[in-house]
Design brief:
The structure is a homodimer of 344-residue chains. The first copy, chain A, has nine helices and 15 strands. The first copy, chain A, has 344 residues and is of the alpha/beta class. In chain A, the strands form three sheets. In chain A, strands 3, 4, 5, 6, 7, 14 and 15 form a seven-stranded mixed β-sheet that branches. In chain A, strands 10-9-8-11-12-13 form a six-stranded parallel β-sheet, with helices on both faces. The longest helix of chain A is centred in the last third of the chain and has 18 residues. Chain A is globular and about 65 Å long. At the A-B interface, β12, α7 and β13 of A face β12, α7 and β13 of B. β13 of chain A pairs antiparallel with β13 of chain B. Chains A, B: Pfam families: ADH_N_2, ADH_zinc_N. Chains A, B: Its EC number is 1.-.-.-. Chains A, B: Keywords: Oxidoreductase.
């Protein structure tokens, strides 16, 4: 097989101010890099688009280093190995990599994980059996710890994290209440077995949420912040747990929100109701829970007890628009770019 | 022994607006109540004054029901039993009770705990070996979980909770940094073995605190809120734990603080640094840790590894002024009212 000469990629052209716009990204073509010993040349099948990428585009310190302007946009990928200089990984293997928004990439072999397409569709390694699924699993079970009969609430509930949170909560015997944008997504939550689905766009959203949790909220899996959090906080029971894995509603914010300052009231709520608010990144739990996750979640998916939905966008050049739309909630299911290189 | 006829007591005269004032309390004299089967007549030796009482004076829902106007002010007490209608408790026994701001009280025998004055001075049951000490012990060890070499910061550090937090942190091999108001209290922290003592009244308090924690803060034991919390938050390390047992700086607040709204930034900090913020009331841990506490803490006190300081005010009629002063940080050590009935 002759190797490709050109590598199409998407780089960070400028740091977004508020909502990212298309001009913050630049599609460029560069030579395909050379492979050294211990490395692989990868051809991207699928690129995962995830909210955390918005944080990496800013220069604010977060849990990961920001990207530099000009860097290839980061991201998880499912790739074909098209050249290998590592024993044990062969041309034709399919791997999970973190090779970003590009058609080809060189990766150290120790940074990829071989996928067995007989066990599960390779794309699930970007979703229900990958980082989003593990975020749901680890955050809910290690921090949320739902007990039978308790009420678990999750927002962005039709997305890859939220849908897994609700379905795992059901498996653990809890009530699951999902929040999503629009009637179509809410109908999907009901299909998944959520006990209630609330549309956060409804004018009486807060009242609807309160009515859906007559016994209060024991676990709120926080991945959005903003108006949803405002509606949830008064409903949290004593000893409620709030795993915080994302605040997508805040990521595009450019100014401090207007007063009054509600931080003291938040601390008072934490005190008087013995709340636990706990931020986390899934990587914290990889060492202790990843093997359990793969075992249990694969079985649940196989049994149909955890279902998942994908939103596939074709063509790397469409990744920026798809990413911008995701931050506005326009995707429906795990957002994946079919980079379209599988036919070459 | 002839029974007393008159019972002096302090009742809630009106709900405070902001800082309590003397007219929010009323000293009154009522007949000593009658004792029924299973009950005791108690004569108060010592009354404990604690910040949580401020919350009980308001009508806002908190972890405990508010007092009604006209109710006797609540509070822990050390009392002599002067009449007993319960087998196994004798006249002359000393008990820990929750009989409030009054000279005499009738209590159900099952609501008191006998104290052995040969094991420890009875007053310690209100402080280092009582609720404040247990608050420190349970919050630090169950939520803070300091590891050897980590840095623990506590405010109100010369008080009964803070001083125990710092000293237990040292026993567990952590660095202890205390925050207190004024040079005298800071000097006392150094005597107790704190690694650093910072005066929150210093104009460059935040800079001094940052300099005292070159490796950041791993555990912040929160009992004050306000400006101390503002200085602490930027210094919290990834995975820092914040047990929240009090927010004394907020208790007298009457209006929502001015903007910007810092609650979203607080949530962002929790997310990006994987913080744990956990409110608690010591009673949560009584079932699981109280026996450990009494055993360990008694030994540490006996060994001199945990020292304590008391601030004794004489006369029940002086309790309101002492309580108001405590909310302003004017006490120095565990504030106890010597009700002065021991000589009768």
């Amino acid at each position: 097989m002759s190797l490709p000469a050109e590598n199409l990629r998407v780089v960070l052209a400028s740091r977004p101010v508020g909502e990212p716009v298309l001009s913050d990204f630049r599609v460029e073509s560069v030579p395909v890099p050379e492979v050294s010993s211990g490395q692989l040349l990868l051809r991207t099948r699928y690129l995962s688009l995830d909210p955390y990428m918005r944080g990496r585009m800013s220069d604010a310190k977060s849990y990961a280093e920001p990207m530099a302007v000009g860097d290839v946009m980061v991201g998880g990928t499912v790739c074909d190995v098209i050249e290998s200089r590592e024993p044990g990984i062969d041309v034709g293997d399919i791997v999970l990599a973190f090779s970003g928004w590009q058609q080809y990439a060189v990766a150290d072999a120790r940074h990829v994980r071989k996928l067995d397409p007989r066990l599960a569709p390779p794309r699930t390694a970007l979703g229900v059996l990958g980082m989003p699924g593990f975020t749901a699993y680890a955050g809910l079970l290690e921090i949320g710890r739902p007990q039978p009969g308790e009420t678990v609430v999750v927002a962005a509930a039709s997305g890859p994290v939220g849908s897994a949170v609700g379905q795992i909560a059901k498996i653990k015997g809890a009530r699951a209440v999902g929040i999503a944008g629009g009637p179509e997504k809410c109908a999907y939550l009901t299909e998944l077995g959520f006990d209630a689905a609330i549309d956060h766009r409804a004018p009486n959203f807060a009242e609807q949420l309160a009515a859906a949790v007559p016994g209060g909220i024991d676990v709120y899996f926080e991945n959005v912040g903003g108006a949803v959090w405002d509606a949830v906080l008064p409903l949290l029971n004593t000893y409620a747990r709030v795993p915080v894995c994302g605040l997508i509603s805040q990521y595009n914010r450019t100014s401090r929100p207007e007063g009054p300052d509600r931080a003291p009231a938040l601390m008072s709520a934490i005190l008087t109701r013995s709340l636990t608010i706990r931020g986390f990144i899934q990587s914290e739990f990889v060492g202790t829970r990843y093997a359990d996750f793969i075992g249990e979640m694969s079985e649940w998916v196989h049994q149909g007890r955890v279902q998942y939905r994908e939103d596939i966008v074709n063509g790397l050049e469409n990744a920026p628009a798809a990413f911008i739309g995701m931050l506005e909630g326009r995707n429906f299911g795990k957002l994946i770019v079919n980079v379209g290189m599988t036919e070459q």
